[in-house]
Amino acid sequence: MKKPTYATLWEILLVSMRLGCTSFGGPVAHLGYFYEEYVRKRKWMDEKSYVDLVALCQFLPGPASSQVGIGIGVMRGGLLGGILAFIGFTLPSVIALILFALLLQGFGIGEASWIHGLKIVAVAIVAHAIVGMAEKLAPDLQRKSLVLFALVGTLVWQTAFTQVGVILIAGAVGYLLYKNIESKEEASFHFPLSKRFGATCLALFFGLLLALPIIREITSLEWVTMFDSFYRAGSLVFGGGHVVLPLLEREFVPTGWLSEEVFLAGYGATQAMPGPLFTFAAYIGAIINGWQGALIATIAIFLPAFLLILGALPFWDKLRRNRNIKGAFMGVNAAVVGILIAAFYDPIWTSAILTPVDFAFAAILFSMLMYWKVAPWIVVVTGVIGGVLLGLL
């Protein structure tokens, strides 16, 4: 691969930063923005390569849209191009959420009515995500049963290992149920990184996943504890930014790093931001330890996405033809829906819907998203205004 020029790298940064400032609507919407900008307008890659890249990122844990952006950046400008594409797409919402967190720390927010409005927004947005994901990822009785298994398991046994166990069991069941699923032959996929580099990235991914909890116990340093918690969340999230909520909530709320009020306020505010939902980590990090904590949190939660996409792409062409692997991921994706429903109940529903009026307002916000197709940022603004009005009743 020819070494990218400074002009190419600068273009990658500027284009991705513009997308980072304007890409509202969550991961699926981001992929639409990417297609329009990178494929149709700039023709940085052909449509078949883009579809192949999206397919891989849907299979991997982590933020799918961010991984697609990283992959496009690498194809256009090598490893440095991938880093710049990530920075451009992520930085705007990271900065905005750090400022929001620092602003909140200067005020008492526990009883603020607009915060309650943001919590009701979270109810509507996660409910909307559940409906869309359930239709796509659990269309048959077997996968609906896996959804129920994941829902019950996650709610009844609320431990740090439950979600990982649920995902592993669902993957095994999916492998058994769908191992003979028909697989269409597809064109070859080319990526400008060696298999040796990919293997190194994958080894580093698994090495950190195993080593960080040990280092955390040995050192008892606050920043190591933070890095481990965010890295683990970024490593184990199948299904996108909405599913990272229960992982982060159980890492930081029960342990006293931040209150549930502050946690859900940030989650609601994140919905108003463009760019990836994983930047919610920057908000949590800033609440805990200012901009330094935000930097640690952002690097830690996105590092697994980097290592996985750079590690998997060189092997993807062969892997994606394996019917057994596809079956396992079908089971995993169904379990994700169940985990999301569990998170929808606790802590989102139980903390936000306190009165019949709250439920009525949540139904209005949900209808704005689901049926009237209103932009998410408008829903968030409506939620804030509604929260203030509800506080006056």
UniProtKB/TrEMBL annotation:
Record's keyword terms, sorted: Cell membrane, Membrane, Transmembrane, Transmembrane helix
One Gene Ontology MF term: chromate transmembrane transporter activity
Domain of life, source organism: Bacteria
Cross-referenced Pfam families: Chromate_transp
Compartments in which it is found: Cell membrane
Protein name from the UniProt record: Chromate transporter
Membrane topology type: Multi-pass membrane protein
Family: Belongs to the chromate ion transporter (CHR) (TC 2.A.51) family.
Transmembrane spans: 12-35, 79-102, 114-134, 146-177, 197-218, 230-248, 294-316, 328-345, 374-392
Cellular compartments per GO CC: plasma membrane
